[in-house]
Amino acid sequence: MNIEESLQFLAKHQPMPSDLEITNVQCDLFVASLELFQNSHDVRCIPLFMNCVSEHTGMGMYEIIADVLMNQDRVNVIRGLRDGLQSNDIAIKYRCCWWALELDAWELLPIIEPLVNSDNEDLRDASEAYVNIAGENV
Q1: Is the pLDDT of residue 61 over 80?
Q2: What is the C-alpha separation between 36 and 42, in angstroms, rounded?
Q3: Helix runs in 22-73, H state only
Q4: Residue 74: enclosing H or E segment and its boundaries?
Q5: I need a surface site. Which of 6, 9, 74, 84 has the fewest CB within 10 A?
Q6: How far apart are CA 52 and CA 58, in angstroms?
Q7: Residue 103 and residue 87: Cα distance in Å, rounded?
């Protein structure tokens, strides 16, 4: 799979199918995309990976997205995280909190801090974890 094929695949899977619906082929292509962008810089992959998550997907693959994000240009990743944190999708906000934490993106504290008041327990927990650790590092 090359970069363009991977980007097309990711664009068609926003979000990825649920854990109960994903096919082996889709899973393999997603993993191949992760591996490709862990070693390739391309700003276009950032929003595609961030928006492929949902509350019904995971299978442990989304944690690897942090590795992809670490390999991309930090300015663009921070911009993508800002956009993701303003999404209407709770799952995207949730993952962006964890990615921001893993990337030591302390500059996102003003955006993440209000999320500790979320009605969604998962988002509240993720944002609280970020805020607590950011407080020690800012």
Answers
A1: no
A2: 10
A3: 24-38, 45-50, 62-70
A4: helix 74-85
A5: 74
A6: 10
A7: 19
Q: What is the pTM of this model?
A: 0.92
CB contact at 8 A, 57 and 22: yes
- Interatomic CA distance for residues 103 and 88, integer angstroms: 22
Q: Which residues of 2-17 are buried (b: 16+ CB within 10 A; e: fewer)?
A: eeeebbebbeebeebe
Q: What is the mean pLDDT of residues 30-49?
A: 96
Do you know the residue count of the chain?
Answer: 138
Confidence (pLDDT) at 138: 62
Rounded Cα–Cα distance for residues 101 and 81 (Å): 11
Band (20; pLDDT cuts 50, 70, 90): confident
Instruction: Determine the residue type at 36.
Output: L
CA 7 to chain centre: 15
- Which of the four pLDDT bands, split at 50, 70 and 90, describes residue 56? confident
**Average of per-residue pLDDT values in the chain:** 94
